[in-house]
Structures are given as C-alpha cells and as structure tokens.
Amino acid sequence: MASPAQMSEADQIKTFKDFLVQYNKLSELCFNDCIHDFTSRNLRPSEDKCTVNCMEKYLRTNQRVSQRFHEFQMIANENMLALAQKSGNPS
Fold first, then answer.
1. Which residues touch 9 (CB under 8 Å, ≥6 apart)?
2. SS3 sequence, the chain?
3. What is the b/e burial string over 63-73, where b = at least 16 CB atoms within 10 angstroms of the residue's CB?
4. Which of 57, 59, 80, 61 is nearest to 69 (CA)?
C-alpha cells in the first residue's frame, strides 16, 4: 500500500471516507447488539464487555476476510500468468 505522501489528495479522501464508513458500520452494529439500558449515561459492565467483544470479533473477521481475499487474488494472478505463458502470450 502506498504511503500517505505517495497518495493523491483524492485517494487520501477516499481512504478516509472508506474508514469512516467502516467505523460507523462497526459502531452501529455493536451499539444495536450491546446497548439496551438507556436509563443511565454510563455503560454497564456487561454492555462495555459486549461492545469490546463485538469490536474485536468484527476486526478479526475483517482481517481474516482481507487475508483470504489476498490469498485468492494471488492464486488468480498466478493462474492468469501460467495461462498466458502456456498460450505463448507473456504479459
């Protein structure tokens, strides 16, 4: 991945927007699953634990999906290269 200095301003804005979408999705998901008591401004210990577990599970799952996508992408690229070499059309 390119460093922020190498990214165009438009790419940096898109990356930040993508981050915000993911952050908001995670916040809404965990809030809806874990927060049920609106009688206090403070989180109950069970709500706090639930939100932490929710966040960690979401992030681990997201990381695993990204890792698997990367693995499949590498296999697809290797297959395309092998096919191109087999047909005599180097890329």
1. none
2. CCCCCCCCHHHHHHHHHHHHHHHHHHHHHHHHHHCCCCCCCCCCHHHHHHHHHHHHHHHHHHHHHHHHHHHHHHHHHHHHHHHHHHHCCCC
3. eeeeeeeeeee
4. 61
Structure tokens at 33: 């699953």
Q: What is the mean pLDDT of the chain?
A: 90
pLDDT at 88: 78
> Is the overall model pTM greater than 0.70, yes or no?
no
Question: Taking a C-beta distance cutoff of 8 angstroms, is the pair 76, 83 a contact?
Answer: no
Task: Determine the Cα–Cα distance for residues 71 and 48; give it in Å rounded to an integer.
Answer: 35
